[in-house]
Structure formats: C-alpha cells, structure tokens
Design a protein that fits this description.
about 550 residues; alpha/beta; FAD/NAD(P)-binding domain; Flavocytochrome C3, Chain A, domain 1; Methane Monooxygenase Hydroxylase, Chain G, domain 1; 3 domains; 5-stranded parallel beta sheet; 5-stranded antiparallel beta sheet; 23 strands; about 35% helix
Length: about 550
C-alpha cells in the first residue's frame, strides 16, 4: 500500500525546506523524508553566512568575478550569473521567513568578508547563521498543513518506470520517469512505499566518507547514490573542498572554525610562529580555500606536525565574544581562550562541488527527479566553491525548482501507476554487525589516505581496488540481511567513494580542489568529469 503525495522531498536542510514550503504554498501535498530529526543537516552547522550583493559599494558582476576566479575556470558562467542575480531576492525571502541577520549599531546589515571575496558581502547571524535559517524554515514547515515531515525515515531507492518494468511489472508507454521512493521507517523497522510524480533530492553532502570532516554524521551521500543507481548523470565528484581550519583534537573531532574568523583578521601560523600564507598567495590568509588547504598541508608535511595555528589574539575579547560566541565558547570549553591562545587547526573534508547534474530549474536527466543544494551540480562552483555561496545556491535553486515542479505537474498528463510493496525476500537479521563498522572505518581511512588534498594516480588506483572489494562485500550483505540505517548508509558511502575516485582518475590535470602530483599543470581544454551508468562502479 503506497502513501501518495504530489511531491516528495528527501532531506531537511535549507534546500529541502525552502523548496517544500514554496511547493506547499502553491497547494501541493508534500512529504519531507528525513533520516534523523528535522534539524539534523549540514545547514544547521553552517557558521559563516550567506553571500549576496546587498550593499551600494558592491555589485553582482564583482561577485560573479570572484566566483569564477575561485572556480578555476570550470564554472558555468551563465549559471553563476543567474544564481547570483537572484541573491538579493533570496535574502529578502529568508528575512520574510523570520531570519534576523545581524545588524550594526546604525541599523545597517553587518556584512562579513571571507576568502576569495573582493568585498564584504556575507550576511550572517553572528556565527550560527545556518542554525538560525534552519529554525526559521522549520517553523514555517510546521505551520503549513500541506506538509508532512517524516522523521527517522530513510530513503532507500528511487522507484522508476524502468526499474519496475525490468522486474516484470506492466508499465504504461512513454519516457522513463520517477514515480516514488522506497523508505525505511527506522523506528517501526518497516520499509514503506511512497508514491509521487516529482521527487526533490536535497540530501546534502558526502563528508562522512572521509576520516576527518566538518560534516555531521548524516552526510553520507544518500541522494547521489540513489540518483546514480537510477541511471541519473553525476558530475565532477573529484572536487572535494577541504575546509582549511577545523579545530584539531587528538580524538578526531573536527569542529569548524569559520572562514569569517580569518575575514576578521586571523592569521595562520606554522609551528615556528611564522605567518606562512604570504609565501603561497598574494591574498595571504584570505586566498580561496583550495590554496589555503594545500598551504597548510604543505606546512604540516615540512614540519612533521599534525596541525598549524590560527591567531586572532590581536582582536579585543569583547569583539570576539560578540562576533563569534559559538566558536569562542567551543574553544574555551577546551582550554583555548581566543584573546590569549592560538587555535590548533587542520583541514577537514567540508563540501562537495560536484553531484547530481541539474539545469537551472533543478531538473536532472531523469524526468520527475530534481535536486538542489549540495547534492546537486549546477555549474556555480566549478572546481572550487567560493565561501558562503552554498547557502545562497540552495535557497535560489529551491525557488527555481519549486517553479519547475509546479510546471511539470500541471502541464504533463501523468498516468497513475500502482506501486508494488517492498519485498524483503528470504533474509535474516545479521549477527555480524562488526562487519559494517570495520568496512566503514576502512572506507573512511582509504579516502583520507589516498583521495585527499594532494593525490597521485597510484594512490587513486589503490583506493579504487579497495573500494571495489568493499562494494562486493556490502552488496552480498545487502541482499542477505534485513536493511537498517547503518547498512544503507555504508552502501551509499561506498557507492559515492567509487564515483569520487572514478571522476578523479578522469581528470589528468590539477585544477581547483583536484591537485594530482602526476599532472601538476592545467589542461587547456575545459571539461567536466561524469558518471551516469548505474550498472557498474566505473560509470
């Protein structure tokens, strides 16, 4: 028995919530599928802010130029210009939803500056911008009777006409399209069938495939893996942004120290206390993230140390506590006081610039399937994301996607298809859960060691061999035991890891976030990497 909606949204960050609200306000019945609590998302952890042109001393073309420069030649310039032009309207929309951006004493909006930006254009809510946006959007969702939020529901697979046809179900003629989702209710331990003519993937990033990441535990690449298995085109997975400044702790915890701290004057120093960024880039500590991350990696390897230092001791303590209350308290709880101590920092996996290929309406290569936010690849970020462009892209593309979905549902004659229930088959509960834990640890270590900030072809090939072995093991496990969240997440993580390595091996040059010692120069011909065949890991 299927649960029928007009639209299903998978994910509950800024992209998914913004989209769901606008579709529901247009009269559509919407289900938000989220695998944990609604507030568990990458959005909730975003500290820095949202980049948009709102001051008279700035203009969109300057923002475009900064974005293109950071993207290292691979941005889609038309996409960059269109998305950034929608920035001011998106800020006004968030303000209308109740987001109160920090203001100066004279009533003007406080604008921060981050790496790669030529102007102050980062709107923020102190250093908890993502949390403030998430709370405002969740309130709007709760107030809308057309939205059902299904927490602790894990989207397993997209249901498409072609998949059902291959399994012997009679399908109406016409193009392949998405018609629903199989979802695990993890509290009831039951797989349910949800039917909808449009599905929006807004599942966020893939940081958990790496040993060290700023992302929360939910960032396991679920939407990308589902789309790939459905035969949807995936692009530019090799471009993993490592945030240069995550708090270093010996237990492996990686708390994000916002780029806005450097925007307010913090200086990176090596173990000898030297400010080293002038050696690597004329923009010094405010160079784009790929340059800063490689510089830190180089300094650590030279000295053999496990971190560098971030120094903001010259800023008065009252200003620090006012501008960065969350960061200040986190460091203080660990014995680091920003007014007198330097912060130990190290790069950590932070953001994926590739993903499910979409156009500027959020449409993927599969009719009825849409994607927005970090899961999607619009062409905005190119080979390296400019700081604070991610929240902007999410809210802009959510709005564009809502318009496209309304058009899709109103102008197409979509035949109603009865969906079969999920069949567990002759499977049993596993008494060997240690296999999942071991394989997850091996995958994360493999990606960190072989597919990190600096790469080689040999390391990538080694990683591919290990991922193939892990995939064989997890496929056997998947078909022989009942599904649960840990199994499904690991299956998706392994799928995504294979896509990252496959795309990285396609790019025989160093560009943006992909730095490979075998090919240190850029190729003159610009090209995307891609994978879109669902039957093999090699695409």
């Amino acid at each position: 028995m299927s649960n029928i909606y007009d639209v299903i949204v998978v994910g509950s960050g800024i992209a998914g919530l913004s989209f769901a609200i606008q579709v529901a306000e247009a009269g559509k019945r919407v289900a938000i599928i989220t695998k944990k609590n609604s507030a568990d998302s990458n959005t909730n952890y975003a500290q820095g802010g949202i980049a948009a042109v709102t001051s008279q001393t700035d203009d969109v073309e300057m923002h475009v130029a900064d974005t293109l420069d950071a993207g290292d030649g691979l941005c889609d310039e038309a996409a960059v210009r269109e998305i950034l032009q929608d920035g001011r309207a998106s800020i006004e929309e968030l303000a209308r939803r109740g987001v109160e951006f920090t203001q100066l004493n004279d009533g003007r909006v406080s604008l921060g500056k981050e790496g790669g930006h030529s102007k102050r254009r980062i709107l923020h809510v102190k250093d908890v911008t993502g949390k403030a946006i998430e709370e405002a959007l969740l309130h709007a969702v709760a107030m809308n009777p057309n939205i059902d939020t299904l927490e602790h529901h894990f989207a397993i697979e997209l249901i498409t006409k072609s998949k059902l046809s291959k399994r012997g179900h009679a399908m109406p003629e016409g193009r392949d399209r998405v018609i629903g989702v199989y979802v695990l209710d993890s509290e009831a331990e039951e797989v349910k069938t949800y039917r909808a003519d449009a599905v929006m993937l807004a599942t966020g990033g893939i940081g958990q495939v790496y040993q060290y990441t700023t992302n929360p535990e939910i960032a396991t690449g679920d939407g990308i893996a589902m789309a790939y298995r459905a035969g949807v085109e995936i692009r530019n997975m090799e471009f993993i942004q490592f945030h240069p400044t995550a708090f270093f702790s010996v237990d492996g915890e990686r708390f994000l120290i916002s780029e806005a701290v450097r925007g307010e004057g913090a200086i990176l120093r090596n173990q000898a206390g030297e400010a080293f960024m002038p050696k690597y880039d004329p923009r010094k500590d405010l160079a784009p993230r790929d340059i800063v991350a490689r510089a830190i990696d180089s300094e650590m390897k030279k000295s053999g140390t496990r971190h560098v230092w971030l120094d903001i001791r010259h800023v008065p303590v009252d200003e620090l506590r006012e501008r960065f209350p969350n960061i200040y308290d986190y460091c203080a709880d660990r014995g680091i006081f920003l007014e007198k101590d330097m912060i130990p920092v190290v790069p950590a996996a932070h953001y994926l610039c590739g993903g499910v290929k979409t156009n500027l309406s959020g449409e993927t290569s599969m009719p009825g399937l849409y994607a927005c936010g970090e899961v999607a690849c619009t062409g905005l970020h190119g080979a390296n994301r400019l700081a604070s462009n991610s929240l902007l892209e999410a809210v802009v593309m959510a709005s564009r996607g809502a318009t496209a979905v309304a058009d899709y549902l109103s102008t197409r004659n979509l035949s109603v298809i009865d969906l079969p229930d999920w069949v567990d088959g002759d499977v049993r509960d596993s008494d060997e859960r240690v296999v999942l834990t071991h394989n997850r640890d091996e995958l994360k270590q493999t990606l960190w060691d072989y597919v990190s900030i600096v790469r080689t072809t040999k390391r990538l090939q080694r990683a591919r061999t290990r991922i193939h072995n892990l995939q064989r093991e997890i496929d056997e496990y998947y078909w022989n035991f009942k599904v649960d969240v840990s199994l499904l997440e690991l299956r998706n993580m392994i799928e995504v890891a294979g896509l990252i390595v496959n795309c990285a091996l396609q790019r025989e040059e160093s560009r943006g976030l992909h730095y490979i010692l075998d090919f240190p120069e850029k190729q003159p011909e610009l090209k995307d990497s891609f994978c879109f065949k669902a039957d093999t890991m090699d695409g």
